[in-house]
Amino acid sequence: MSGISQDTRDWLAQLGVIPQDDRLWLAALTHGSYEADRNYERLEFLGDRVLGLSIAEWLYAENNAPEGKLSQRLNALVSGATCARVARSIGLPDHIRLGKQAREDGARDSDNILGDVMEALLGAHFLDHGFEPTRDLVRRLWADVFAGDLGERKHPKSALQEWAAGNRRKPPEYELVARDGPDHAARFTVRVSVLNVGSAEATASNKQEAEKLAAEAFMEQFG
Amino acid sequence: MSGISQDTRDWLAQLGVIPQDDRLWLAALTHGSYEADRNYERLEFLGDRVLGLSIAEWLYAENNAPEGKLSQRLNALVSGATCARVARSIGLPDHIRLGKQAREDGARDSDNILGDVMEALLGAHFLDHGFEPTRDLVRRLWADVFAGDLGERKHPKSALQEWAAGNRRKPPEYELVARDGPDHAARFTVRVSVLNVGSAEATASNKQEAEKLAAEAFMEQFG
Protein backbone atom coordinates (compact mmCIF):
# COMPACT_ATOMS: atom_id res chain seq x y z
CA MET A 1 0.00 0.00 0.00
CA SER A 2 1.41 3.35 -1.01
CA GLY A 3 1.39 6.34 1.36
CA ILE A 4 -0.81 9.40 1.49
CA SER A 5 -0.05 11.62 -1.50
CA GLN A 6 1.28 15.12 -0.82
CA ASP A 7 -1.80 16.43 -2.54
CA THR A 8 -4.12 14.66 -0.12
CA ARG A 9 -1.95 15.66 2.81
CA ASP A 10 -2.18 19.33 1.78
CA TRP A 11 -5.92 19.02 1.41
CA LEU A 12 -6.28 17.49 4.88
CA ALA A 13 -4.09 20.25 6.33
CA GLN A 14 -6.43 22.82 4.80
CA LEU A 15 -9.26 21.12 6.69
CA GLY A 16 -7.19 21.40 9.87
CA VAL A 17 -6.41 17.68 9.94
CA ILE A 18 -2.94 16.30 10.65
CA PRO A 19 -2.86 12.51 10.16
CA GLN A 20 -1.04 10.64 12.93
CA ASP A 21 -1.67 7.12 11.72
CA ASP A 22 -1.46 7.33 7.92
CA ARG A 23 -2.92 3.86 7.46
CA LEU A 24 -6.26 4.99 8.90
CA TRP A 25 -6.55 7.86 6.47
CA LEU A 26 -5.53 5.80 3.48
CA ALA A 27 -8.13 3.20 4.39
CA ALA A 28 -10.79 5.90 4.86
CA LEU A 29 -10.12 7.19 1.34
CA THR A 30 -10.00 3.76 -0.31
CA HIS A 31 -12.96 2.17 -2.07
CA GLY A 32 -13.22 -1.62 -2.18
CA SER A 33 -12.66 -1.49 -5.96
CA TYR A 34 -9.16 -0.13 -5.34
CA GLU A 35 -8.14 -2.38 -2.49
CA ALA A 36 -10.40 -5.11 -1.16
CA ASP A 37 -8.55 -5.63 2.11
CA ARG A 38 -8.16 -2.22 3.59
CA ASN A 39 -11.03 -0.03 2.46
CA TYR A 40 -13.32 2.45 4.17
CA GLU A 41 -16.15 0.14 5.22
CA ARG A 42 -15.22 -0.52 8.85
CA LEU A 43 -14.24 3.11 9.39
CA GLU A 44 -17.56 4.20 7.93
CA PHE A 45 -19.35 2.00 10.48
CA LEU A 46 -17.50 3.86 13.24
CA GLY A 47 -17.72 7.30 11.66
CA ASP A 48 -21.48 6.98 11.28
CA ARG A 49 -21.76 6.88 15.10
CA VAL A 50 -19.16 9.62 15.59
CA LEU A 51 -21.25 11.86 13.35
CA GLY A 52 -24.48 10.85 15.11
CA LEU A 53 -23.19 11.75 18.55
CA SER A 54 -21.52 14.95 17.35
CA ILE A 55 -24.74 16.22 15.79
CA ALA A 56 -26.92 14.97 18.66
CA GLU A 57 -24.81 16.84 21.21
CA TRP A 58 -24.93 19.97 19.06
CA LEU A 59 -28.71 19.85 18.65
CA TYR A 60 -29.20 19.12 22.35
CA ALA A 61 -27.08 22.13 23.33
CA GLU A 62 -28.46 24.54 20.75
CA ASN A 63 -32.14 24.35 21.43
CA ASN A 64 -34.73 23.15 23.83
CA ALA A 65 -36.81 21.32 21.23
CA PRO A 66 -38.64 18.12 22.22
CA GLU A 67 -37.09 14.77 21.41
CA GLY A 68 -39.18 14.24 18.27
CA LYS A 69 -37.94 17.47 16.71
CA LEU A 70 -34.33 16.66 17.60
CA SER A 71 -34.58 13.25 15.94
CA GLN A 72 -36.08 14.73 12.82
CA ARG A 73 -33.32 17.36 12.51
CA LEU A 74 -30.65 14.76 13.25
CA ASN A 75 -31.88 12.37 10.57
CA ALA A 76 -31.67 15.13 7.96
CA LEU A 77 -28.19 16.22 9.06
CA VAL A 78 -26.65 12.74 9.02
CA SER A 79 -28.36 11.45 5.85
CA GLY A 80 -26.24 10.07 3.04
CA ALA A 81 -27.28 13.00 0.85
CA THR A 82 -26.13 15.55 3.45
CA CYS A 83 -22.83 13.72 3.99
CA ALA A 84 -22.28 13.71 0.21
CA ARG A 85 -23.06 17.42 0.06
CA VAL A 86 -20.51 18.16 2.77
CA ALA A 87 -18.02 15.90 0.98
CA ARG A 88 -18.41 17.89 -2.24
CA SER A 89 -18.20 21.22 -0.42
CA ILE A 90 -14.71 20.35 0.81
CA GLY A 91 -13.48 18.89 -2.47
CA LEU A 92 -13.38 15.29 -1.20
CA PRO A 93 -14.16 13.60 -4.56
CA ASP A 94 -10.62 14.20 -5.88
CA HIS A 95 -9.06 12.24 -3.03
CA ILE A 96 -10.99 8.97 -3.18
CA ARG A 97 -8.94 5.99 -4.32
CA LEU A 98 -11.10 4.07 -6.79
CA GLY A 99 -10.48 1.11 -9.04
CA LYS A 100 -10.47 1.80 -12.78
CA GLN A 101 -13.89 0.34 -13.46
CA ALA A 102 -15.49 2.21 -10.53
CA ARG A 103 -13.91 5.46 -11.78
CA GLU A 104 -15.33 4.88 -15.23
CA ASP A 105 -18.73 4.10 -13.73
CA GLY A 106 -18.79 7.55 -12.13
CA ALA A 107 -18.21 6.38 -8.55
CA ARG A 108 -16.46 9.66 -7.80
CA ASP A 109 -19.80 11.42 -8.10
CA SER A 110 -21.93 8.83 -6.29
CA ASP A 111 -23.80 10.16 -3.26
CA ASN A 112 -23.50 6.76 -1.59
CA ILE A 113 -19.73 6.56 -1.94
CA LEU A 114 -19.11 10.22 -1.10
CA GLY A 115 -21.32 9.95 2.00
CA ASP A 116 -19.60 6.77 3.15
CA VAL A 117 -16.10 8.20 2.66
CA MET A 118 -17.10 11.36 4.51
CA GLU A 119 -18.15 9.23 7.48
CA ALA A 120 -15.04 7.06 7.20
CA LEU A 121 -12.88 10.19 7.46
CA LEU A 122 -14.66 11.07 10.71
CA GLY A 123 -14.01 7.53 11.94
CA ALA A 124 -10.31 7.89 11.13
CA HIS A 125 -10.17 11.25 12.89
CA PHE A 126 -11.89 9.80 15.95
CA LEU A 127 -9.38 6.96 16.23
CA ASP A 128 -6.49 9.32 15.53
CA HIS A 129 -7.46 12.27 17.75
CA GLY A 130 -10.36 11.27 20.03
CA PHE A 131 -13.96 12.38 20.28
CA GLU A 132 -13.78 16.07 21.13
CA PRO A 133 -11.45 17.20 18.33
CA THR A 134 -13.59 15.18 15.91
CA ARG A 135 -16.77 16.77 17.20
CA ASP A 136 -15.12 20.16 16.62
CA LEU A 137 -14.25 19.13 13.06
CA VAL A 138 -17.87 18.10 12.44
CA ARG A 139 -19.01 21.49 13.69
CA ARG A 140 -16.73 23.23 11.20
CA LEU A 141 -17.62 21.02 8.24
CA TRP A 142 -21.37 20.90 8.97
CA ALA A 143 -21.68 24.59 9.91
CA ASP A 144 -23.53 25.58 6.73
CA VAL A 145 -25.95 22.68 6.64
CA PHE A 146 -26.54 22.96 10.39
CA ALA A 147 -27.40 26.63 9.99
CA GLY A 148 -30.05 25.49 7.54
CA ASP A 149 -28.08 26.87 4.64
CA LEU A 150 -28.76 23.91 2.41
CA GLY A 151 -28.22 26.17 -0.58
CA GLU A 152 -26.24 25.31 -3.61
CA ARG A 153 -22.88 26.84 -2.77
CA LYS A 154 -20.70 24.32 -4.56
CA HIS A 155 -16.96 23.89 -4.48
CA PRO A 156 -15.66 25.62 -7.66
CA LYS A 157 -14.21 22.35 -8.96
CA SER A 158 -17.57 20.60 -8.51
CA ALA A 159 -19.33 23.49 -10.19
CA LEU A 160 -16.99 23.29 -13.18
CA GLN A 161 -17.30 19.50 -13.36
CA GLU A 162 -21.08 19.79 -13.47
CA TRP A 163 -20.96 22.62 -15.98
CA ALA A 164 -18.83 20.51 -18.32
CA ALA A 165 -21.13 17.50 -17.98
CA GLY A 166 -24.22 19.69 -18.46
CA ASN A 167 -22.69 21.11 -21.66
CA ARG A 168 -21.70 17.71 -23.03
CA ARG A 169 -18.00 18.52 -22.74
CA LYS A 170 -15.13 16.29 -21.65
CA PRO A 171 -14.33 16.59 -17.93
CA PRO A 172 -11.96 19.42 -16.96
CA GLU A 173 -8.28 18.50 -16.70
CA TYR A 174 -5.93 20.06 -14.17
CA GLU A 175 -2.23 20.39 -14.77
CA LEU A 176 0.53 21.79 -12.58
CA VAL A 177 2.39 24.12 -14.95
CA ALA A 178 4.83 25.75 -12.53
CA ARG A 179 6.21 25.42 -9.04
CA ASP A 180 8.25 28.49 -8.07
CA GLY A 181 10.00 29.86 -5.02
CA PRO A 182 11.84 28.17 -2.13
CA ASP A 183 10.29 25.14 -0.39
CA HIS A 184 9.05 27.13 2.59
CA ALA A 185 7.26 29.60 0.35
CA ALA A 186 6.49 27.63 -2.80
CA ARG A 187 3.98 28.96 -5.34
CA PHE A 188 1.94 26.59 -7.47
CA THR A 189 0.45 27.49 -10.82
CA VAL A 190 -2.28 25.26 -12.19
CA ARG A 191 -3.96 25.29 -15.54
CA VAL A 192 -7.43 23.83 -16.02
CA SER A 193 -8.62 22.97 -19.51
CA VAL A 194 -11.83 21.73 -21.02
CA LEU A 195 -11.34 20.26 -24.47
CA ASN A 196 -12.71 22.44 -27.25
CA VAL A 197 -13.63 25.19 -24.80
CA GLY A 198 -10.51 26.76 -23.36
CA SER A 199 -8.31 26.98 -20.30
CA ALA A 200 -7.57 29.17 -17.30
CA GLU A 201 -4.67 29.47 -14.87
CA ALA A 202 -4.22 30.47 -11.25
CA THR A 203 -1.39 30.58 -8.70
CA ALA A 204 -1.51 29.91 -4.95
CA SER A 205 0.62 28.63 -2.08
CA ASN A 206 -0.65 25.08 -2.55
CA LYS A 207 -1.93 22.99 -5.40
CA GLN A 208 -5.45 22.53 -4.02
CA GLU A 209 -6.00 26.25 -3.73
CA ALA A 210 -4.52 26.88 -7.15
CA GLU A 211 -6.90 24.32 -8.68
CA LYS A 212 -9.84 25.92 -6.94
CA LEU A 213 -8.91 29.40 -8.14
CA ALA A 214 -8.29 28.11 -11.66
CA ALA A 215 -11.75 26.53 -11.71
CA GLU A 216 -13.25 29.83 -10.57
CA ALA A 217 -11.34 31.72 -13.24
CA PHE A 218 -12.50 29.24 -15.87
CA MET A 219 -16.14 29.60 -14.85
CA GLU A 220 -15.89 33.38 -14.89
CA GLN A 221 -14.52 33.30 -18.41
CA PHE A 222 -16.54 30.46 -19.99
CA GLY A 223 -19.32 29.48 -17.59
CA MET B 1 -38.27 19.81 41.78
CA SER B 2 -36.75 17.96 44.71
CA GLY B 3 -33.12 16.83 44.77
CA ILE B 4 -31.56 13.41 44.23
CA SER B 5 -32.46 11.12 47.12
CA GLN B 6 -29.63 9.78 49.25
CA ASP B 7 -30.71 6.34 48.17
CA THR B 8 -30.23 7.13 44.52
CA ARG B 9 -26.97 8.91 45.22
CA ASP B 10 -25.63 5.82 47.01
CA TRP B 11 -26.73 3.64 44.13
CA LEU B 12 -24.99 5.88 41.58
CA ALA B 13 -21.84 5.85 43.74
CA GLN B 14 -21.90 2.05 43.65
CA LEU B 15 -21.89 2.31 39.86
CA GLY B 16 -18.87 4.62 40.09
CA VAL B 17 -20.91 7.69 39.17
CA ILE B 18 -20.60 11.01 41.00
CA PRO B 19 -23.23 13.49 39.76
CA GLN B 20 -21.87 16.99 39.13
CA ASP B 21 -25.03 18.56 37.80
CA ASP B 22 -27.85 17.02 39.83
CA ARG B 23 -30.53 18.35 37.51
CA LEU B 24 -29.27 16.17 34.68
CA TRP B 25 -29.51 13.03 36.75
CA LEU B 26 -32.93 13.86 38.13
CA ALA B 27 -34.20 14.48 34.62
CA ALA B 28 -32.65 11.21 33.40
CA LEU B 29 -34.55 9.30 36.11
CA THR B 30 -37.86 11.09 35.61
CA HIS B 31 -40.69 9.73 33.47
CA GLY B 32 -43.08 12.16 31.79
CA SER B 33 -45.87 10.91 34.07
CA TYR B 34 -44.01 12.30 37.07
CA GLU B 35 -42.92 15.58 35.61
CA ALA B 36 -43.89 16.66 32.12
CA ASP B 37 -41.33 19.45 31.80
CA ARG B 38 -38.07 17.89 32.78
CA ASN B 39 -38.12 14.22 31.95
CA TYR B 40 -35.69 11.80 30.35
CA GLU B 41 -36.73 12.14 26.71
CA ARG B 42 -34.12 14.60 25.46
CA LEU B 43 -31.36 12.89 27.42
CA GLU B 44 -32.41 9.54 25.97
CA PHE B 45 -32.02 11.05 22.47
CA LEU B 46 -28.45 11.96 23.36
CA GLY B 47 -27.67 8.80 25.33
CA ASP B 48 -28.78 6.62 22.43
CA ARG B 49 -25.90 8.07 20.35
CA VAL B 50 -23.43 7.90 23.26
CA LEU B 51 -24.20 4.20 23.58
CA GLY B 52 -23.96 3.69 19.81
CA LEU B 53 -20.51 5.20 19.55
CA SER B 54 -19.25 3.50 22.72
CA ILE B 55 -20.27 0.07 21.44
CA ALA B 56 -19.14 0.79 17.86
CA GLU B 57 -15.66 1.76 19.07
CA TRP B 58 -15.51 -1.34 21.24
CA LEU B 59 -16.52 -3.68 18.42
CA TYR B 60 -14.15 -1.97 16.00
CA ALA B 61 -11.25 -2.42 18.38
CA GLU B 62 -12.06 -5.96 19.50
CA ASN B 63 -12.24 -7.74 16.20
CA ASN B 64 -11.52 -7.49 12.57
CA ALA B 65 -14.99 -8.48 11.41
CA PRO B 66 -16.43 -6.96 8.24
CA GLU B 67 -18.81 -4.03 8.50
CA GLY B 68 -21.95 -6.17 8.14
CA LYS B 69 -21.02 -8.31 11.13
CA LEU B 70 -20.19 -5.24 13.22
CA SER B 71 -23.58 -3.68 12.45
CA GLN B 72 -25.40 -6.87 13.36
CA ARG B 73 -23.61 -7.16 16.70
CA LEU B 74 -24.12 -3.46 17.40
CA ASN B 75 -27.85 -3.62 16.75
CA ALA B 76 -28.23 -6.44 19.27
CA LEU B 77 -26.13 -4.70 21.90
CA VAL B 78 -27.98 -1.38 21.75
CA SER B 79 -31.52 -2.77 21.38
CA GLY B 80 -34.19 -1.67 23.84
CA ALA B 81 -34.33 -5.21 25.23
CA THR B 82 -30.58 -5.24 25.93
CA CYS B 83 -30.70 -1.79 27.51
CA ALA B 84 -33.57 -2.95 29.73
CA ARG B 85 -31.62 -6.05 30.69
CA VAL B 86 -28.62 -3.97 31.71
CA ALA B 87 -30.95 -1.61 33.60
CA ARG B 88 -32.36 -4.53 35.60
CA SER B 89 -28.91 -5.97 36.25
CA ILE B 90 -27.88 -2.78 38.05
CA GLY B 91 -31.13 -2.35 39.97
CA LEU B 92 -32.24 0.71 38.01
CA PRO B 93 -36.02 0.09 38.29
CA ASP B 94 -36.11 1.26 41.94
CA HIS B 95 -34.78 4.68 41.02
CA ILE B 96 -37.16 5.75 38.27
CA ARG B 97 -39.51 8.58 39.22
CA LEU B 98 -42.96 7.63 37.93
CA GLY B 99 -46.41 9.15 38.30
CA LYS B 100 -48.93 7.19 40.35
CA GLN B 101 -50.89 5.89 37.38
CA ALA B 102 -47.74 4.81 35.53
CA ARG B 103 -46.54 3.01 38.66
CA GLU B 104 -49.82 1.16 38.93
CA ASP B 105 -49.66 0.29 35.25
CA GLY B 106 -46.37 -1.51 35.83
CA ALA B 107 -44.16 1.07 34.13
CA ARG B 108 -41.31 0.11 36.45
CA ASP B 109 -41.05 -3.22 34.69
CA SER B 110 -41.53 -1.96 31.12
CA ASP B 111 -38.67 -2.79 28.76
CA ASN B 112 -39.34 0.42 26.84
CA ILE B 113 -39.10 2.66 29.87
CA LEU B 114 -36.15 0.83 31.42
CA GLY B 115 -34.25 0.95 28.13
CA ASP B 116 -34.96 4.63 27.65
CA VAL B 117 -33.91 5.55 31.20
CA MET B 118 -30.74 3.48 30.81
CA GLU B 119 -29.84 5.52 27.73
CA ALA B 120 -30.83 8.79 29.42
CA LEU B 121 -28.40 8.02 32.25
CA LEU B 122 -25.63 7.64 29.68
CA GLY B 123 -26.69 10.98 28.18
CA ALA B 124 -26.47 12.61 31.61
CA HIS B 125 -23.07 11.07 32.24
CA PHE B 126 -21.81 12.26 28.86
CA LEU B 127 -22.86 15.86 29.55
CA ASP B 128 -21.53 15.68 33.09
CA HIS B 129 -18.20 13.94 32.47
CA GLY B 130 -17.49 13.82 28.71
CA PHE B 131 -17.22 10.99 26.21
CA GLU B 132 -14.33 8.88 27.44
CA PRO B 133 -15.46 8.35 31.05
CA THR B 134 -18.92 7.51 29.70
CA ARG B 135 -17.50 5.03 27.24
CA ASP B 136 -15.66 3.42 30.16
CA LEU B 137 -18.91 3.22 32.13
CA VAL B 138 -20.61 1.53 29.17
CA ARG B 139 -17.80 -1.01 29.02
CA ARG B 140 -18.34 -1.85 32.69
CA LEU B 141 -22.13 -2.04 32.51
CA TRP B 142 -22.26 -3.89 29.18
CA ALA B 143 -19.37 -6.27 29.97
CA ASP B 144 -21.60 -9.33 30.43
CA VAL B 145 -23.81 -8.79 27.43
CA PHE B 146 -20.79 -7.86 25.30
CA ALA B 147 -19.06 -11.08 26.29
CA GLY B 148 -22.13 -12.86 24.94
CA ASP B 149 -23.24 -13.77 28.43
CA LEU B 150 -26.89 -12.98 27.79
CA GLY B 151 -27.78 -15.37 30.60
CA GLU B 152 -30.34 -14.76 33.24
CA ARG B 153 -28.22 -13.44 36.09
CA LYS B 154 -30.78 -11.08 37.58
CA HIS B 155 -30.36 -8.51 40.30
CA PRO B 156 -31.60 -10.18 43.53
CA LYS B 157 -34.33 -7.57 43.97
CA SER B 158 -35.58 -8.19 40.44
CA ALA B 159 -35.46 -11.93 41.02
CA LEU B 160 -37.52 -11.57 44.21
CA GLN B 161 -39.99 -9.21 42.51
CA GLU B 162 -40.54 -11.72 39.75
CA TRP B 163 -40.77 -14.63 42.15
CA ALA B 164 -43.51 -12.81 44.11
CA ALA B 165 -45.45 -11.99 40.93
CA GLY B 166 -45.04 -15.55 39.65
CA ASN B 167 -46.41 -16.90 42.94
CA ARG B 168 -49.35 -14.49 43.00
CA ARG B 169 -48.04 -12.72 46.08
CA LYS B 170 -48.04 -9.02 46.88
CA PRO B 171 -44.81 -7.25 45.85
CA PRO B 172 -41.95 -7.39 48.38
CA GLU B 173 -41.68 -4.46 50.76
CA TYR B 174 -38.37 -3.12 52.01
CA GLU B 175 -38.05 -1.34 55.35
CA LEU B 176 -35.03 0.22 56.99
CA VAL B 177 -35.16 -1.23 60.53
CA ALA B 178 -31.87 0.09 61.93
CA ARG B 179 -29.09 2.52 61.19
CA ASP B 180 -26.16 2.05 63.56
CA GLY B 181 -22.67 3.42 64.03
CA PRO B 182 -21.14 6.84 63.39
CA ASP B 183 -21.87 8.69 60.13
CA HIS B 184 -18.55 7.77 58.51
CA ALA B 185 -19.12 4.08 59.22
CA ALA B 186 -22.88 3.71 59.33
CA ARG B 187 -24.47 0.25 59.11
CA PHE B 188 -27.90 -0.20 57.58
CA THR B 189 -30.24 -3.05 58.39
CA VAL B 190 -33.09 -3.70 55.99
CA ARG B 191 -36.01 -6.08 56.32
CA VAL B 192 -37.80 -7.35 53.23
CA SER B 193 -41.24 -8.86 53.64
CA VAL B 194 -43.72 -10.55 51.34
CA LEU B 195 -47.22 -10.63 52.79
CA ASN B 196 -48.30 -14.10 53.93
CA VAL B 197 -44.89 -15.55 53.12
CA GLY B 198 -42.30 -14.19 55.52
CA SER B 199 -39.41 -11.78 55.86
CA ALA B 200 -35.61 -11.65 55.89
CA GLU B 201 -33.06 -9.12 57.13
CA ALA B 202 -29.57 -8.09 56.14
CA THR B 203 -27.03 -5.44 57.16
CA ALA B 204 -24.53 -3.55 55.02
CA SER B 205 -22.70 -0.23 54.80
CA ASN B 206 -25.41 1.25 52.60
CA LYS B 207 -29.10 0.78 52.13
CA GLN B 208 -28.88 -0.47 48.54
CA GLU B 209 -26.51 -3.23 49.44
CA ALA B 210 -28.57 -4.16 52.52
CA GLU B 211 -31.71 -4.44 50.34
CA LYS B 212 -29.87 -6.59 47.84
CA LEU B 213 -28.55 -8.92 50.54
CA ALA B 214 -31.97 -9.07 52.21
CA ALA B 215 -33.55 -10.08 48.90
CA GLU B 216 -30.92 -12.79 48.49
CA ALA B 217 -31.54 -14.03 52.03
CA PHE B 218 -35.28 -14.07 51.38
CA MET B 219 -34.90 -16.10 48.19
CA GLU B 220 -32.59 -18.60 49.92
CA GLN B 221 -35.17 -19.13 52.65
CA PHE B 222 -38.44 -19.01 50.69
CA GLY B 223 -37.63 -19.00 46.97
Description of the molecule:
2 copies of one chain form a homodimer. The first copy, chain A, is mostly helical. Chain A folds into 2 domains: 6-146, Ribonuclease iii, N-terminal Endonuclease Domain, Chain A (Orthogonal Bundle); 156-222, Double Stranded RNA Binding Domain, CATH 3.30.160. Chain A is built from 11 helices and 3 strands. Chain A has a 3-stranded antiparallel sheet, covered by helices on one side. In chain A, helix 3 (41-62) packs antiparallel against helix 4 (67-78). The first copy, chain A, is globular and about 55 Å long. The model of chain A has no long low-confidence stretch (mean pLDDT 91). Chain A binds chain B through residues 41-42, 44-46, 48-50, 52-53, 56-57, 60, 66-67, 70-71, 74, 126-127, 130-132, and chain B through 41-42, 44-46, 48-50, 52-53, 56-57, 60, 66-67, 70-71, 74, 126-127, 130-132.
Structural class computed from helices and strand pairing of chain A = mainly alpha
By DSSP (H or I, 4+ residues per run), the number of helices of chain A equals 11
N- and C-termini, Cα separation of chain A: 39 Å
- Low-pLDDT windows of residues of chain A: none
> How many strands of chain A?
3
| CATH secondary-structure class of the largest domain in chain A | Mainly Alpha
Tell me the overall shape of chain A.
Answer: globular
State mean pLDDT of chain A (0 to 100 scale): 91
Cα-based radius of gyration of chain A, to the nearest Å: 18 Å
> How are helices and strands ordered from N to C of chain A?
HHHHHHHHHHEEEH
Named CATH architecture of the largest domain in chain A: Orthogonal Bundle
CATH superfamily of the largest domain in chain A: Ribonuclease III domain
CATH topology of the largest domain in chain A: Ribonuclease iii, N-terminal Endonuclease Domain, Chain A
Enzyme class (chains A, B): hydrolase
GO molecular function (chains A, B): ribonuclease III activity
Pfam families (chains A, B): dsrm, Ribonucleas_3_3
Binding site for Mg(2+) (chains A, B): 44, 116, 119
